[in-house]
Amino acid sequence: MSYTKRDDGRKFDELRKIKAKVGVVKRADGSAMFQMGDTIAIASVYGPRELHPRFLQNPERGVLRCNYDMASFSVTERKKPGPSRRSTEISLVTEKALASVIDLDLFPNTVIDVFIEIIQANAGTRCAGISAAAMALAHAGIPMRDMVAAVSVGKVGDKIVLDLDKEEEDFEEGATDIPVAMTARKREITLLQLDGEVTKDELMEAIKMARKGCEEIYKIQVKTLKEIYKNG
What is the CB-side half-sphere exposure of residue 193 using CA atoms within 13 A? Predict the structure, then answer.
């Protein structure tokens, strides 16, 4: 089915409006808010701190532990409180997306806890969460080899589009959703998931579009982080 125009008027390769802020959770060691359109993620970082119980400790390197959840009021139909299979899966892929840029060898026997809460959802929640978490880790002063940005790209009808919204995810003829996370400088892919069907050429086009989107997000991440240090 032909997809000729996005409902919100964006170009096919255009991100939704982005807002970002750090230092939003005062008691956390680092925190950030990242908003893409109507999707808002809050990430809080605690640690490095001693890992309990002790048998889980690794004397050679620290542990990154991510916890992703959606607030019950974040979606139109009330979400059941507590973890679900989906939130557990997203927590694990978030850990993998971020772990490669953190030098955990510096923190033996410790844990770095990252809590991601989606307080408003309109598609792309795992990507917003990863972008927020990367900023929160930097704000906490965790040594990072690179910054990570994430965006959803996919196929809606016959078009490859950047940063799908909920209407596009629910497209009547079906949509393919491809969450992608990348490092900023080396452009290494740290997350790539595929929900649906695309050809090899379409996937390559989608990754190219995701790279462009991640570069734009990275600029916003860096600008936001620099602002807080410039002001404080």
Answer: 17
Contacts of 118 (CB under 8 A, 6+ apart): 39, 40, 41, 68, 69, 70, 71, 74, 125, 128, 129
SS3 19: strand
Inter-axis angle of helices 200-231 and 125-139, to 10 degrees? 40
Q: Are 172 and 18 in contact (CB under 8 A)?
A: no
The closest alpha carbon to 5, from 161, 210, 130, 118, belongs to 161
Is residue 151 within 8 Å of 124, Cβ to Cβ?
A: yes
d(CA 208, CA 185): 15
Q: Round to the nearest angstrom and report the end-to-end CA distance of the chain.
A: 52
Kindly list the structural domains of the chain, giving each domain's residue range(s) and its CATH number in brackets, ordered by start.
18-231 (3.30.230.70)
Considering the entire predicted model, what is its pTM? 0.94
pLDDT digits (tens, 9 = 90+) for 163-219: 999 999 988 777 899 999 999 999 999 999 998 889 999 999 999 999 999 999 999
Which of 134, 171, 170 shows the shortest CA–CA distance to 151?
134
Q: With the C-alpha atoms ordered 124, 125, 130, 132, is the resulting torsion angle positive or negative?
A: positive
Written as six digits, the tokens of 228 are 């807080």
The share of the chain scoring above pLDDT 70, in percent, equals 95
| Alpha helices by DSSP H, the chain | 85-99, 125-139, 166-169, 200-231
Cβ distance 64 to 96 under 8 Å?
A: no
pLDDT category of residue 111 using cuts at 50, 70 and 90? very high
